[in-house]
Amino acid sequence: MAETVPVRCPSCRRDHLYAAQVYPCACGAPVVPPLLRAAPAEPITHRTWTDDWVTVRCPRCGRQDQWPQPELGCLCGTVLRVPVRPVSAPAPAAPDSTPSSAARPSHIALPRTATAVARPSFRPVTIRTARDAVTAAALYLKWLGFRDVVQPEVRPSSGIDLRGPGLVAQVEPSTRPATLRDVECLWLNGLNISASSVFFSLAGYADDARSRADDLGVPLFVMDLTGRPQPVNGPADELLSTGV
């Protein structure tokens, strides 16, 4: 379990308790960025590729990889970058490369078929709550051909709302567009278990999130309150056309 550290927002002086996200290393060991307890958190005013990733060493195998920079959203609206103890490692990769070892694929390719798959009409469910949005996404994934899609009773800290064999999916039911960080974290979770990643959002996606999803091969769908997803990028069009 990740260590909990106190974090004070410099904008409103509100105190928080924060625990960094735990990710699986390629060797299977849990890895968490080592937080600097005494260092102050800094408001994020602009983003760069270098600032959004940190180098973390696996305590079991010694492997060094790039992981998402720990962040905390304060109730006042400020997004804080939580400091991490540095590791002696090469600088983060440039934006057109992936944050993983070159020995691993840049993304988990979705199966392809020569022709479109014939399916019965999708029967959506009306979305009234965040839980309804996850249910609608689960039904849609099953309709696409994914098997044994399940959702946890309580949303895990990883943000993964749905899982199945070879699948992880995230649903953003809020009124904010999904961010670049949202897409990259979902892709990273899928990459580490060799699973396809699929994202659903009610409010759409930030421009940089859509661009990065195209680079990583992550299908993006938007949903309206009728519960009917629509593809918004090439990988989503492909998945809708071919299924699994």
Automatic annotation (TrEMBL):
Domain of life: Bacteria
Protein name per UniProt: Restriction endonuclease type IV Mrr domain-containing protein
Organism listed in the record: Streptomyces maoxianensis
